[in-house]
Amino acid sequence: MSKAIYIVTTEPNSGKSIISLGLMQLLLGRTAKVGYFRPIIDDVPKGKTDNHIDTVLSYFNVDMKPEEAFAYTRSQVVQLKNQDKDDEIVGHIIHKYKTIENKFDFVLVEGTDFSGEGAIIEWDINVLIAKNLGIPAVILASGKNKTLDELIGNLYMAYDSFKEKGVDVLLIVANKVQPENITIVSNGLKEKLPNDVLVGTIPLNPILGSPTLKEIAQELDAKVLFGEDYINNQVGSFSVGAMQLRNYITHLKDNSLVITPGDRADIILGALQANISTNYPSLSGIVLTGGLLPEESIIKLIEGLSDIIPILSVARGTFNVTNKIGIIRPRIYAENTEKIQTSIQEFEKHIPTKELAERLITFKAKGITPRMFQYNLLQKATSSKKHIVLPEGSDERILMATKMLIDTNAVTITLLGNKEQITSKITELDIDLDSNTINIIDPKTSDQFLDYANTLFELRKHKNVNLAMAKDLMEDVSYYGTMMVYKGHADGMVSGAAHTTQHTIRPALQFIKTKPGVSIVSSIFFMCLPNRVTVFGDCAINPNPNSEQLSEIAISSAATSAAFGIEPKIAMLSYSSGASGIGEDVDRVRKATEIIKVKRPDLKVEGPIQYDAAVDAKVGLSKLPDSEVAGQASVFIFPDLNTGNNTYKAVQRETGALAIGPMLQGLNKPVNDLSRGCTVDDIFNTVIITAIQAQGL
């Protein structure tokens, strides 16, 4: 189940805070602990806190430090993107989010503000973040200075771009709409959007659209002379007191801000008197310009008044100050409880909160992205550290992967081979790897050699293996590494960078053997496609499985899929879909599917089915309209090794997908095989999944 919601806007100054505050209040009414996260914030001066973060954490008493609530500043993201480090950006954001998610029942995630350098890339970044966090979105746009068609078109395009990337949108909000247009905007959005998308339309609110005296003081770098207790007064309008007092006071309005030179005692005193008079509107404050202060006698007179609105003094001239105030962008900050409460009230009044809460509670992500999948793998491995043996200790790629693995502190590593050769190789490659901090074993000189040889002899003597033969075999790194796993001196083994598949798995088949009830060892690859992770099996071990073996491969692959957080929906692949195909090959797949349904009626399985019908919703609907799997398969079982091996390699090469594996299934203890063309990343990922397999034993 999703534990978060992502708030994103299509433009700057859209009033995103009203959604953040309203959602926070809504969530706290239904769950005890709600966290807050901003992946990217605007740059803030050293020692200062982002205003959004400060407001939410303070007002709602969220148990977080400000630095925990964001991942990057805007300038940091721009710098990393200029260095083509998009993966690093997303990886760190996932890490920060997951840390918060683990502490709270729900997380409110707030997107960027579309201001400053790098604003042009923000939309794509917001979509990317929501996709990789696997959480649904709320999309917001301002109706200010837009026609009806522009507003609806803007929001629909935003919705469409999120859906195209696989991000679910729960709510679309049009904010700052003229009150008389609320109904027409709501109806327009409902007509344009699908029925399962909620719609909210919030009217323009003068309280939220105007700055406070505090904001004006900060923007003008003003000194507060009087009335600091009322510094959060809202400014409804402002005007310059340049004419005679008798004329000026006729122009005053509710919550007006008076702007006048500091030597205009008549305007100052007249405004203060008008503020307390029942015959004139209440004022928000006074700004004195030009760096001029009233004379001492006037100051003394003001000090004696019982009710004083804020009076600010600024160095700039009247014209400059007036222009500056006119362009101030109002904000909501922690001390301004009136704006916060107004925001919450507007949200509750104009957003379908009951329906939204229900969607949030029941929302379930449809898949998992490659970056999140890899992050989850590493976190799972780290949660219970396992010991993995790598028999090919002098291979350059193995040594580089070992360095990466030790740096993550996710596993303990033992390398097999000649210690001097391995140490020399580390020095030659200039790998920052201290050979004294890793376990290196030479099988021939190992203290365990005789014990391992005797154990092998006892296990294989019925196959005419004598002690001398057992000793010869135990000098082989694959046999020695497998025996370490068998004896419990290591939790798993990864080999194959320099050895054949047969060389790697033969010892495992001889004495680790298969799990009870499993008659066949098979393999899967985790295929990390651009927008999802799927499981391909069997692409490495069994050349021509029969129906019974195919069914067992599928059941094992479904168990692996579920263990790694991917809901299994099994497609038994063939050259035909449903009942249309005839022939020995398709009949074998059809029979395998029937066996699965008998053995495991709880599994979602479809077969025979073609690849396009398994992955494409439209094709799946046309060929198998009643299927739970067609168009949404996550586990693909190929009919033979030739098809499976070539398909996974074709998908990998043509789409740039990351293929993690092969991971062997069915053994009592985890032993995994590498391709001799494997990369350092392949080794790293295979060791991690081997460690996770070991946790399940």
UniProtKB/TrEMBL annotation:
Pfam families, per database record: AAA_26 (PF13500), DRTGG (PF07085), PTA_PTB (PF01515)
GO annotation, cellular component aspect: cytoplasm
This enzyme's EC code(s): 2.3.1.8
One of the record's GO molecular function terms: phosphate acetyltransferase activity
Alphabetical GO biological process terms: acetyl-CoA biosynthetic process
Record-annotated DRTGG domain positions: 215-325
InterPro entries reported in the protein's UniProt record: DRTGG (IPR010766), P-Actrans_bac (IPR016475), P-loop_NTPase (IPR027417), P_AcTrfase (IPR004614), P_AcTrfase_dom1 (IPR042113), P_AcTrfase_dom2 (IPR042112), Phos_Acetyltrans/Butyryltrans (IPR050500), PTA_PTB (IPR002505)
Enzymatic reactions: acetyl-CoA + phosphate = acetyl phosphate + CoA
SUPFAM superfamilies, alphabetized: HprK N-terminal domain-like (SSF75138), Isocitrate/Isopropylmalate dehydrogenase-like (SSF53659), P-loop containing nucleoside triphosphate hydrolases (SSF52540)
Keyword Cytoplasm attributed: yes
Signal peptide residues on this chain, from the entry's feature table: none
Sequence ranges assigned to domain Phosphate acetyl/butaryl transferase in this UniProt record: 372-691
Principal EC category: transferase
Alphabetical UniProt keywords: Acyltransferase, Cytoplasm, Transferase
Keyword rRNA-binding: no
Function statement: Involved in acetate metabolism.
Entry similarity comment: In the C-terminal section; belongs to the phosphate acetyltransferase and butyryltransferase family. In the N-terminal section; belongs to the CobB/CobQ family.
Subunit structure and binding partners: Homohexamer.
Record comment regarding domains: The N-terminal region seems to be important for proper quaternary structure. The C-terminal region contains the substrate-binding site.
Name of the molecule in the record: Phosphate acetyltransferase
Organism: Maribacter ulvicola
